[in-house]
Amino acid sequence: MEERVPAVELKGVCKRFGRIVANNNVNMSMYRGEILAVLGENGSGKTTLMNMISGIYFPDEGEVFVDGREVSIRSPKDAYELGIGMIHQHYKLVEIFSAAENIVLGVDADGRFDLKSETVRIRSICEKFGFSIDLSKKIYEMSVSEKQTVEIVKALYKGAEILILDEPTAVLTPQETKKLFSVLRAMKADGKCVVIITHKLNEVMEISDRVAVLRKGESVGSVETAETDMNALTQMMVGKQVILNIERPAPNNSVDRLFVKDLTCLNPEGFKVVDNVSFTAKSGEILGIAGIAGSGQRELLESIAGLQKIHAGEILYTNPSNGQTENLRNKTPMQIRNLGVRLSFVPEDRLGMGLVGNMDIIDNMMLRSYRKGKGVFLQRKPPKTLAERIIEELEVVTPDAKTPVRRLSGGNVQKVLVGREIASAPKVLMVAYPVRGLDINSSYMIYGLLNEQKRNGTCVIFVGEDLDVLLALCDRIVVLADGKVSGLVDARSATKDEIGLLMTKHGGSEEDEQ
Amino acid sequence: MNLTRISEFFVQAVMFGVPLLYGAVGEILTEKVGHLNLGIPGIMYVGGISGIIGGYFWETYGNPNNTVMCILCSLLSALAGSALMAFVYAFLTITLRANQNVTGLVLTTFGLGLGSYLGSALAGLLGTDTTISLNATSAAYKKLFWVDIKLFGSVFVSFGFLTLLAIVIAITASFVLQKTRVGLNLRAVGESPATADAAGINVIRYKYAGTVIGGAIAGLGGLYYVMDFIGGSWSNGGFDDRGWLAVALVIFAIWRPKLAIPGSILFGGLYILYSFIPNLPRSSQEIFKVFPYLVTIIVLILTSVRKKKENLPPASLGLPYFREDR
Predict the structure, then answer these.
(1) B188 to A77: CB separation less than 8 angstroms, yes or no
(2) How does pLDDT run across A74-126, given as a tens digit for each residue?
(3) A92, B185: Cβ pair inside 8 Å?
(4) Is the pLDDT at B31 greater than 80, yes or no?
(5) Dihedral sign, Cα of residue B176, residue B180, residue B181, residue B185
(6) Greatest C-alpha distance within chain A
(7) ipTM score of the complex?
(8) Phi, psi dihedral angles at A359 (to 5 degrees)
């Protein structure tokens, strides 16, 4: 087996961005007829490494061999000529072009441009691997999964023999993931070299033949998937043993803190996005909110934080400092914040809400404290201390606190955001998708932080998508379906199936709040 | 208003619209590769004075009766002058990734100053402190490939070749953008340079080509103005706000060169409307000059309300591109 010539071989590859070392002395090889999983935590340099093979970045040091021949890949064009195609995590598609136009883009076909004859060729590729796409559909009308299909067809159309996919399943539903995996297997059977970048261990076990692990920008080694297991891989990836159990301390001194009563919110089109929702959140517990994406989770949290216009119903808050009950409906977001109700919403693009990409970590901390300080001058010292504490405690990978957050990798951005909200010692902490896109180590760190808040008597509301995590972390779970509460379950006794059923129960009747 | 008056109005609207059409088509090409060039007024101004300089040298040192050379000298000179200006913009914004708005505005200020300086210097050379007039060159422009168009049965109007060229360029630009591979690649560069780059398109080359060719086309607008519109003379600042009208026309035409043709006639018509309204007091005339901008605002409102992606500016307009950016 060792006699095979690798399709791509990397020897001692290094890449630096200023003072950040993204990759250091990486050795890796990938073969035809094989699916290689490149595994690593966030910021471990997986994407940077693959970008060097696909011509986006040029390595500072090291050698790249394709089919045993040393090559210099200076641009994506060079990569295509070597048969290397990459499907980036953020799709590289022109929104206003049709699928066909995107696929043929940039291909030199003796100057002629005949979309019809090209379409025939694209169709034959689709049939071979079992894709179904409408080639005349515009990209902006497509779902994420359709866009991904266009990307894959584009790479194949350009003759890619070595296909690199950067976190291809991050935005797919389980069904779409299954379909993608069957396509990848078909490519493997066709003798192509398939590389997927991921940090999801179950996917690695399911799809890959071999796993190459990166840790802090360096290659740790590679193993045959059949000869390893999840625990061993985690250890390689993290460098230390991680207990894959989420801790759940018993709620302690729970008192009712937040009452949501018959809450209804309308979207701009006038439809009810939150429909007559009622529940009670207690201090010292984690209340989970489950539901299919877009079932009203966002609007619910935003209305509690005062960011959403409330159509009907009210939100009552028992102030622990004086025992008085306040109606949050009549308050401005600033007043609600001052009562200790904090919202940490991690949107699909992490920088969209909450952090300013071009500002550094300290300045982003200051977004929450700019009202403090005397006169017109800002107080710079406390935010700086806080930024440094977050970097240290949450192990944020950054050269220093003065680096603009947009330069950090996704997971690190998220740590900064969640860390800042937790640091304000809130009375009610609402987090939505706080571990979206995070690797195992960082996810567990966030769970730990939430549990710490719970022990301190904070009322934590956790909106999540992973039912396993919801069941392991929360005390009670409110299930939303179509903006309505379709059930409220005890997370210690409920099962995944039970919640799954409630999530799809459209127009479901409300169960007793117990 | 009789037929003669109407056809007169039409001719003047077209004549006023031609420089705007050149400017708008040039700016559309520039914007389609993702660069907002607010230097267009300056580039057009420099295109005009360059044409004058080229024509002046041939008329003074060559043979003014050779119409082909008259045209060639001034035409090439205008193209070179405006392309050079556009190249400065391209180098600053593409290679050095300077802010496009600032660079463009600086170029306009610079271009207006440079044009006026050269205009004065040339007047000094001629020994007349007032105006320059290039009768032979101007006549050559008006006579080459001119066409008579019969309007309303009896009235003849004639347009010089720069008018025809403007329409040919606009139609060609539309065809190239929509129907050819080069056009597809070019639009991809303006929409999403990272996508174009990953697809193996030479983004930098396309950006340079779009801005420099676009600038050269805009410069022809200045040339038309000095040679055809005012008949071979130069007066500092005479070009007025035509450059800004051209930029507004880009929005009015929703980034489609073909639509800029009727758009330019409409803008021209609105702009000169006041002189066709009898007994209009002097004070009311100026208000007519805002009409083209008003219709641009209406178009902006309409496209914003409809939000059809195809009618919006190129997605990466104004953003610098650097492959290794994180």
Answers:
(1) no
(2) 988 899 899 999 999 888 999 999 999 999 988 765 556 778 888 898 999 89
(3) no
(4) yes
(5) positive
(6) 78
(7) 0.85
(8) -95, 155
CATH 2.40.50.180 is right for the domain spanning A8-238: no
Domains of chain B: 3-325 (1.10.3470)
Q: What's the CATH fold of domain A245-343+426-514?
A: Rossmann fold (3.40.50)
Across the interface, whether the CB atoms of B184 and A112 are under 8 A apart is answered: no
In whole angstroms, how far apart are CA A252 and each of A247, A279, A454? 15, 20, 9
* A8-238 and A245-343+426-514 agree in CATH topology: yes
- B-chain residue closest to A358, CA distance: B326
Amino acid present at B148: D
User: How many Cβ atoms from other residues are within 10 Å of residue A474's Cβ?
Assistant: 28
Number of other CB atoms surrounding residue A453 within 10 Å: 22
Verify whether the Cβ–Cβ distance A93 to B195 is below 8 Å: yes
pLDDT of amino acid B156: 63
Distance, in angstroms, between B96 CA and closest chain A CA? Answer: 19
- The percentage of residues in chain A with a pLDDT greater than 90, rounded to a whole number, is 26
Calpha distance A341→A354 (Å, rounded): 15
Largest distance between two CA atoms of chain B = 66
pTM metric for this prediction: 0.77
Interatomic CA distance for residues A155 and A167, integer angstroms: 16
Structural domain spans, chain A: 8-238, 245-343+426-514
CB A256 within 8 A of CB A316: no
pLDDT band at A512 (very low <50, low <70, confident <90, very high): very low
